[in-house]
Structures are given as C-alpha cells and as structure tokens.
Amino acid sequence: MKINEAAVFKWVVIVGVAAAVIVAVTLLTRPLVGSLLGLAIVIAGGVYAYRWARERWR
Amino acid sequence: MESATVTVGHGHADHHHGPPEANQSSRIDRQTLGILLFIVSEVMLFGAFFASYFFLRVVVDPASWPPEPFELPKAVAGMNTAILISSSFTVHYALESIRRGNRTGLKLGLVATWLLGATFLFIQINEYVHLGFSARDFSFGSIFYCLTGLHGAHVFVGLMLLSFATIRAFRGHFGPAEKDHLGVEVPGIYWHFVDVMWIIVYVTVYIL
Question: A5–B36: do the CB atoms touch at under 8 Å?
C-alpha cells in the first residue's frame, strides 16, 4: 500500500465508523459500556496496526 | 583507460557542485514523509492533553463530570462533527479530481472544504459563547477549553494551508502527475488528521 492522501482518507472512514458505533452504544446504554467498547476497538486497532507494520516493513 | 577515467572525473566536477543528492525513498516522497512525521509529533501533543483529561476525570474529580449544572451540547457538536467529516470527503474529491485532470473539481472541492472548515470553526466559537462556563470553572472547564481549543487551533492552521492551496488552484497550479499536486496532497493529509482528532475529541469529551 502506498502512503498518500487516499490511504489516510481510508483511515478517516474507518475511525468515523468506529466512532459512530461507540456513540450509538453509549447513547443506548451507559458511558461505561461505550468506554469499554472504545478501549476494545483501540486495542484491536493497535494489534492490527502492529501486525501490518511488521509485514509492511519486513 | 587512464585518460578516460580522468575525462569522466572532470565532467563530474564540472556539473556537480555542493553536497551529493539526498537519498530518496521509492516508497514515499520527502514532502509526504515530512507531514507524516509532523503528524506523529502532533499525536504526541494530543496524547498529553488526553492523558490530562483522563487523569482529571478519573482520578481527581470522578464524582461529577461535567459538574452541575453544566451540560455539553451533544447535538450541536454532533452536527459540527458531521460538517467536519464531510469536509474530509470534499478534500478527497478535490484530490481525486486533479488526479484525473479535472481542474474544476479541484477548485470546487477545495472551496467546499474551506467553507465547511470555516463553518465548523464558527460553530465552535459560537458554542464557546453560549456554553455558560469558562476555562476558570473547575478542572472540567480548563481541560474542556484546552482540548477543544487545541483542536480549534489546528483547524485554523488547516484553513490557512487550504487557503494557500485554493489560491494556487485558481492561479492554474497543480496537475494530474503525482509530483504536481503535492501542494494539495500534503494539506489534505493534515486535514484528515485534524478530522480524525476531532472524532476522538468529540467521542471522548461530549459522549463518554
């Protein structure tokens, strides 16, 4: 994958969709549930980014 | 053989002055690498502010957040978030247009992005006026204005960069070749970063 504006825009869409899910869950339940979901998404994203970076720069 | 070597040496000395050419990665051009490194430093800056926010909220003052009787306008900020996210789509449209050689699309996308960014900033300032608390009201007020103000400053800088890109677009600069529209690509990447940061600020400060 080439690093350019189009690649960064893809991340805007991914973060936007994840945020929309967190907002919906928080408003439907409690802020604690939304916070835990947010934390889980951030951890999953971190693991994915770490694996991607290892393969990309090998 | 010896004379040939001497000739080549002379030719090299005649045409090349100063230090050797800097190494250029085949994966990323230096302008894009520069903005990405800058964004990494910005992420650390925002990270420090978020660390302060969570420290104040969870450790220092967990009982009342936001303190009574203050309330944050979630709906207005949500609409503002939608405006900023749509501006990422317009700047992407501008870049896709110039990649296809469509100059009108480039200008239209850049002007639309600038207007959406300015609208976001105007609504943010209007929100500050009507919030009913200031940066001096508890740790909540301080960190709220610090986080949203830091982001607002980044939007302002982004608008300045977009202004230069827009003026250049109307003066006939930029072309479909990759190296000919870096003046839009780099502000575009910065604008996407500002957008992503706002999504995180909105979810953290207004929703959670």
Answer: no
